Amino acid sequence: MKNLYLMLTIAGAVVPYVFFMQFMAEEGASPVHFLQSVFVNGAAGGFAADVLISSLVFWIFLFTSRQKRIPLYIVLNCTIGLSCALPCFLWLREKDLEAQQASLN
């Protein structure tokens, strides 16, 4: 699973940015226009709300379960997106679990 999480982390960083770069090339880099476009209709707004709520749940989980590397995951979530931050968290968690298992043996 560790390798899958790493591949999903990379895909979660690259794929959204392909769309963001396309949008900026066509529409410009205005943050206000970007946010207006995110909520331009019900379908887009629903997807945006889903990601925002999921991000909030992820942050609450990180803080309440006293996870390591919280700043890293929040920076990834805010600058790239949940599609990168969540699989990165899972990848690093798998690495930590492997290290713990190795130290027990």
- Count structural domains: 1
**How far apart are the termini?**
21 Å
**Unreliable spans:** none
Oligomerization state of this entry? single chain
Q: Provide the helix percentage.
A: over 70%
* SSE pattern, N- to C-terminal: HHHHH
Number of strands: 0
- Residue fraction in strands: under 5%
Please, what is the average pLDDT?
A: 95
What is the count of helical runs? 5
Structural class: mainly alpha
C-alpha geometry: elongated
Largest sheet: none
Radius of gyration: 16 Å
Describe this structure in words.
With 105 residues, the protein is mainly alpha-helical. The protein has one domain (2-104). Helices cover 86% and strands 0% of the residues. The chain contains five helices and no strands. The protein has helices spanning 2-27, 31-38, 42-64, 70-79, 82-104. Helix 1 packs antiparallel against helix 5, helix 3 packs antiparallel against helix 4 and helix 4 packs antiparallel against helix 5 (82-104). The chain is elongated and about 55 Å long. The mean pLDDT is 95.
